[in-house]
Amino acid sequence: MKQGWDSILTKIEQDNSNSFIGGKPCIPKNEFLPICKICGEPLTFFFQVAFPQGHMWEGKSLAFFYCTCTCHKHDDIQKFPPSIHTGTKNDLFHIPDGEIDPEIYQTLFRVIFFDTVDGVLREDYKEKVKYQKIDWKSSKKKNKKAPIIIAGEAIWSKEFGMERPISYEGKDMELVLQVADYFNFEKLDDASPEMEETYKKNNPFIPRKENNYTFFFEFNRVYLWGTVEKEHPSFWLNVQCF
């Protein structure tokens, strides 16, 4: 089993931790706060991770933003990243050159990868997700209930099986992290609610009763893959229904 790190969450006021869910992002000051390329709404900051000691990207961090207007402002095709054209039905595949250029591929989400020391608290961001500190526990076991797992082994759905990219533009790809299915992100009380579909013509969308945001829909497990390079890696995302 490959080395992985399971997340342990603690609800506290935002502190100076480098790994956390919600609150305000701590990203380089020259990074623009991203907007959705489909609906034009500001993307919501969900989490950021500082890669732990022993990881290839030790000293680097990754922040993840995602559109919480997906359900009611995107059509069905736009609710997930653009499909890639592998030309194969195999479970292991190479991603064709250019397919995951972030300016084209990262439509409803944005991955920001940077040196951890360059991160600054972005007071210009209006937080929507409640803050939780993340600590990392080294593990070589598959822990399906861990909210976020760095590296390790992908936990696949029995229905879909393995869907693993091998390389992109001649560079090997590895699992960066996975986010658990049915793990939702608690929102602040004054943050706009996520909408859900009612299938009624006169009132097609209503606010979710739950005070949280789903992440690519709550029944999906999310996998983020990256090229094995220490500067400017490329990222690909897939989901599986559980």
Structural commentary:
By secondary structure, the chain is mainly β. The protein has one domain: Roll (Hypothetical protein YwqG fold), CATH 2.30.320. It has two helices and 18 strands. The chain has helices at 70-73, 102-105, and strands spanning 4-10, 20-21, 26-27, 44-50, 60-66, 92-95, 109-115, 120-121, 132-139, 148-151, 164-168, 171-179, 185-186, 195-197, 205-207, 212-213, 220-227, 235-241. The strands form four sheets. Strands 1, 2, 4, 5, 6, 7, 9, 10, 11, 12, 17 and 18 form a twelve-stranded mixed β-sheet that branches. A two-stranded antiparallel sheet has the order 3-8. The chain has a two-stranded antiparallel ribbon with strand order 13-16. The longest helix is centred in the N-terminal third of the chain and has 4 residues, at 70-73. It is globular and about 50 Å long. The model has no long low-confidence stretch (mean pLDDT 93).
Helix content: under 10%
Which percent band covers the strand fraction? 35-45%
The largest sheet is: 12 strands, mixed
Shape: globular
CATH topology: Hypothetical protein YwqG fold
- Total separate domains: 1
In the CATH scheme, the class would be Mainly Beta
Given as residue ranges, the uncertain stretches (5+ residues, pLDDT < 50) are none
**CATH arch. level architecture:** Roll
Structural class: mainly beta
Distance between the termini: 22 Å
Order of helices and strands: EEEEEHEHEEEEEEEEEEEE
Number of strands: 18
Average pLDDT works out at: 93
The number of helical segments is 2
